UniProtKB/TrEMBL annotation:
Molecular function GO terms recorded: odorant binding; olfactory receptor activity
Name this protein carries in UniProt: Odorant receptor
Species the sequence originates in: Drosophila madeirensis (Fruit fly)
Principal cellular location given in the protein's record: membrane
Family: Belongs to the insect chemoreceptor superfamily. Heteromeric odorant receptor channel (TC 1.A.69) family.
Membrane topology: Multi-pass membrane protein
Record's GO cellular component terms: plasma membrane
Source organism superkingdom: Eukaryota
Pfam family, one: 7tm_6
Amino acid sequence: MKNTGPRNPIKMEDFLRPQMFQKWTRFVQFDWKRDGDNRLVNSSSIAFWISAILNVIFFGLNGWDIIRHLSTGRPSDQNPPVLSITIYFSIRGLMLFVKRSEIIDFVNALDRECPLEIQKQREMRLERTYKSFWQRYRFLRFYIHSAMPIFCCLPLAVYLLTNEGFGAPITQHQQLLGGWMPFNLRRNPRFYPLVWLFDVSCTACGVSFFMTFDNLFNVMQRHLIMHLDNLSRHLEAINPADSVTNEVEFFADLRALVQRQQLLNRLCGQYNDIFKVAFLVSNFIGAGSLCFYLFMLSETTDLFMIIQYITPTMVLVGFTFEICLRGTQLEEASARIESSLSHQAWYMGSRRYRKFFLLWMQYSQRTQKLGAFGLIEINMVHFTDIMQLAYRLFTFLKSH
């Protein structure tokens, strides 16, 4: 695609396209198609089941190694930074699987609110939303398709450059993910290509989980903000004096606006319900992962190790920042509704409208926020808290 302004009407499917590597590896968790009722559905769940098999094998083996280490005191083969970020990615994948029905229903709710007429799309400024999505999609396509091969091939390059002979055991820094396998497979050079391919498959699975989660989260957020801003513009256009001259038509239009505001508030609540568990668990695991990566970067002088660990570190910081920024943007878009109402010349309206206006203002003062069970709110303050937590963990590790 060469331009960001398609000649045909923009459809919901245009926002839900997977990245190319997901198609190549068949890790497309949501393969969106329309059924006979013109409803968007996931046409295939094979990616979820393949991912489940890989996760059960990977975490089953490493979980056994951790239990054995804790119970017997035998040395563990774990790589804490890699293990923590694989847990971080897998939690997102588990959330996608558990909430798949809610995700499909929510996408269809947004699809129903998305007009197909070009003129209405222009009024809603859908093209601007799509342009923003497309720019981000292209940037992530470039970053993922350049960084992931480097991340996967660096341990292979280290092995080829530093191995001490065909019979020498494989060290941890020569492996992609590390961890434990039975029969000492990870240290056996005869099985190194097969183990590396397994690690690459697990990496592709985890990155696909992360990208699917990220795309759904951002597409839903952008659409909600688009609808909230469109509602704000309609509220700004209200002329309270019309409630005196044409009361019946005025309150009919007003009723439609209030119903739309209630619908958008419900959608914001459903949006938060889909992601709140992932927010609560994965953000703190992300802080731990970031701590481990910073610790490894501060302790090593190996250029290959620095390059390998700097990529996930940048991903964790960048995407954590963006999630918190999206929460702030949604809160600000919701607050603009109250601002639009407060700038009205409400005192020019009829007595009936002035009474209604007071109730409407009180209802609109409750802005929509992203959070998790009242424990955290997803905004820029939360991003600061995560970075401070990661730094405290980092200084604790350095001191011990």
